From TrEMBL:
Highest taxon, organism lineage: Bacteria
Identification of the protein by name: Pentapeptide repeat-containing protein
InterPro entries per the UniProt record, alphabetical: 5peptide_repeat (IPR001646), Pentapeptide-BTB/POZ_domain (IPR051082)
Pfam families documented for this protein: Pentapeptide
Annotated Gene3D superfamilies: E3 ubiquitin-protein ligase SopA (2.160.20.80)
The organism of origin for this protein: Nostoc punctiforme FACHB-252
PANTHER family: BTB_POZ DOMAIN-CONTAINING PROTEIN KCTD9 (PTHR14136:SF17)
């Protein structure tokens, strides 16, 4: 169970938004809901089902998202720094311009995930499903990142778009 104090919810959110968050707390699922710019930093969201949810610009710093279902989620510009995404389903999600520094994505499903301009510095991607976009096609920041094959990049670089 996670608790969100009213101060964690962005100012200007309406009653409907608060109802969505209350529903999420009770059911641990919210298919396609709008949670953009909500602050879930340090929240325990383990096993939560947020398929197709809009989390654009949300703060999930140091959040527990172990085994969360984020398939088709919009995670553009999200802050996932230090988040635990072990075993999470991120299939076909948008993580463009996301901060994933020091995030643990071990054993996660990254098939079809869009990492354009994402920062994966010091992240752990070991034993994740294959995603060629991480190194081949997108501008991704990899600095001492543990890659899916378990090998850590020994240098810092940004891959270029092709």
């Amino acid at each position: 169970m996670f608790i969100l104090a009213p101060s964690l919810i962005n100012q200007g959110n309406d009653l409907l938004r608060r109802h969505i968050i209350q529903h999420l707390q009770e059911t641990r699922k919210c298919f396609g809901c709008n949670l953009s710019r909500v602050n879930f930093s340090r929240a325990n969201l383990q096993g939560i089902d947020l398929r197709s949810a809009n989390l654009q610009g949300a703060k999930l710093k140091n959040a527990n998202l172990r085994y969360a279902n984020l398939e088709w989620a919009d995670l553009r510009e999200v802050n996932l720094q230090g988040a635990d995404l072990t075993g999470a389903n991120l299939k076909n999600s948008l993580l463009t311009n996301a901060n994933l520094q020091q995030a643990n994505l071990q054993h996660s499903n990254l098939q079809g995930t869009d990492f354009r301009n994402a920062n994966l510095s010091y992240a752990n991607l070991s034993q994740t499903s294959k995603n060629n976009d991480i190194q081949n096609r997108n501008s991704v920041i990899l600095c001492k990142t543990v890659m899916p094959n378990g090998i850590r990049t020994n240098y810092c670089y940004e891959t270029s778009k092709t």
